[in-house]
Structures are given as C-alpha cells and as structure tokens.
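Hello,

I think I submitted the coproporphyrinogen III job twice by accident. Can you confirm which output corresponds to this input? Input:
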Amino acid sequence: MSYRDNFIKACRKEQVDTLPVWYMRQAGRYDPDYRKIKEKYTLLEICQQPELAAEVTMMPIKKLGVDAAILYSDIMNPVASLGVDFDIVKDIGPVIHTPVRTAQDVERLRPIDVEKDLSHILQTIRILDKELEVPLISFAGAPFTIASYLIEGKPSKSYIRTKQMMYSEPAVWFALMDKLGDMVITYLRAHIASGAKAVQVFDSWVGALSPADFDVYVRPTMMRIFQELSDLKEPKIYFPGVSSGELLPYLTTIQADVIGLDWRVPISVGRERLQNRYAVQGNLDPYILTAPMSVIEAQAKAIMDEGMKQPGFIFNLGHGLFPEASLEKLKELTTFVHSYSHSVLTQQAEKSGV
Ligand code: CP3
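Support: Only one job matched these inputs. Its output is below.
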C-alpha cells in the first residue's frame, strides 16, 4: 500500500503501533482557509468542482496530521438524483423544496443515476485516490436520517412527521426505506469503484428512536445495506449518531466492520453491548474542544486507555466538529493521540514479545 494504513488496520482489528485518528466534519468552518473558500462558493458549488472539493478534503490532512481523509461532500448530495430539490441553508442545514410525505411522493422518487447526476463526486474521489497519502473515507446518509430531512423538509428536533409516517403508514415508510437503501448501496459501490478505501454510513439522528422501533422500522434496511455491500473488501463503518447507546445491542446483526460511538457510551460498555463483534470508533465529546488543553488531553487519554485494551480502535469525536473548535487544539490533540498511543502500544507489544 502506498498510503499510511493504520486506519484500515484498526478497522480490521489488526495490531497497530499507533492509534489512527480522524475527525468527523474535519473539513469545515473552524479552519480560516476553509472559511475563505466559503466566502466565494456554497457547499454545493464546491462539490461541483472536483479539483476544489479534493483540495478542501486534503486541507485537514496537511494541517492536522490525521490518518484518514473524509470526502468533502454532504449526505444530501445523492438526493438530487432521486429527483428531490434542496438547498443547504447557512446556519440551518438541508431544506427540501417539496417535502416527501405521501405514497405518491415516495413513488415519484427515481433510482439514482450516479454516472449521469453525480459524476463530479466520482471525479473528486478519483483525484483524491491519486493524491492522498492516507485512505479516503467516502460516505452516505443512512435511510432514517435522509428520510427525516425529506419528510420534515428541514432539520427537526422532534422528528414528529417522520414518526407519524412510520407509525401511521408503515407501507409508505418501508417503501421509502427501500428506495433510500437502494440509493445508499448504488452510491457507495460507485465510490469504492472510483477509489474510496472505506465507507461510512451516517445515521446521525436515528438515536431519536426507541430500541424497539429501531428494530422494527430501521434495522431491516440497515441489515440489507451492509449485506449487499459485504462482497467489497473495503471496511464499512456504521455511525448510529447521537444518543445511540441504547441501540447498540440491536446492531449486532449488521455486517459492518466498525461502529461509531457517541460520547455518552464508555468504549468498554459500547464494545460489550456490541458483543465485541466490531472495531469501534469515537468518542470524545466534540464540545470539549473549547476546554483547556489539559482537560482535552485527560479525556482523550481516558478514551484511549479503554480503546487500547483490544485491537480495533479508531480515535474520533462522538459527533462532528463544530465551527467554534480551535485548529491549534485539534493539532495538539492529534499529536497527543499519536504520541501517547504509540508509547502505550509499543510497551504492550514488548511485554507480549511481539
Ligand atoms: O469533513 C467532513 O466530515 C466531510 C464533509 C461533510 C459535510 N457534511 C459537509 C458539510 C460530511 C461528512 C457531512 C455529513 C452530514 N451532513 C451529516 C452527517 C454527519 C453529522 O454531522 O451528523 C448530516 C446530518 C448532514 C446534513 C447537514 N449538512 C447539516 C445538519 C448541516 C449543518 C448546517 C450548519 O450550517 O452547520 C450541513 C451543512 C454542512 N455540510 C457543512 C459542511 C462543512 C457546514 C456548512 C458549510 O460549511 O457550508
């Protein structure tokens, strides 16, 4: 392999001598250079320009020294190919022009055509495949999380219309889950064919469901997605988003390699709830990045100490970075994760005579 591969090794639960680290939302507004680009272009305009999208993807690799890149894109991008118009509105998030609420609305959704409608994204991946020295993670939004935007029409706190459809019109709900499941499978297969080295499915808001509802209304679709991707050798990550700790025991039938944990679940508890079947990724509270460095390092150390008890740990945040995070602190944190984990892991290897 021509790139640093600790991230891929950790996804496969292989031994590493230093923990891999990357941050969800690592390309973003905490970086003044990114903010300059955003003065000229919107997120969607950046995504339309493969050279620029590749450059933005690479910015945190150079600046922070992280071990994986995440494609600069948004979970909403493939939705355009379903035939749904949307905008990403500043300080709000995705806004859908005509929300999807009835059986007819769901029926109208087209299968996505990646080559025709999303070739700019594949082109960005091809550029990155040539230029990166770390693995590229591409991603898709999970059906529940995408459905919540399509149905509500904008970000929601209660998911009231989403739940209304789920409970009142289960046939429409499952038809929508099927179509969005197909979207995720087609889209991620195309990413891997273009050079992505791992994929992550973001289910940021599924923690809004009770475990019993997750089991009935979402788990079958998630099982199908990972089952249909299981012939691909590239690691697959499922991130069940914020407040997902209680859902973890219900994920163990899903054929992912890695599960992302939010910051409310200690790493060892997460592993136990997942029956030790997966590598785990996480889970520093992103808001701690406003704290003094000594507090950040103490919490990072506690997470690493648990994470390093077994192979299969990737250091990350418990959710995405936010604009107020400090670039300097992120750099220091990355260096700290590398140096602290290297000293512990090399000592562990010496003791076991490896
Ligand atoms: O660096 C990276 O992680 C790669 C880029 C990335 C973006 N969105 C770019 C973006 C990724 C992985 C996403 C995923 C995404 N998008 C998720 C899942 C991850 C999560 O945070 O839970 C979700 C729920 C979305 C939908 C979305 N897009 C929201 C809720 C927002 C926030 C609105 C805001 O202004 O904060 C966006 C906009 C968005 N997507 C931004 C970025 C960098 C911020 C606005 C901008 O810079 O234009």
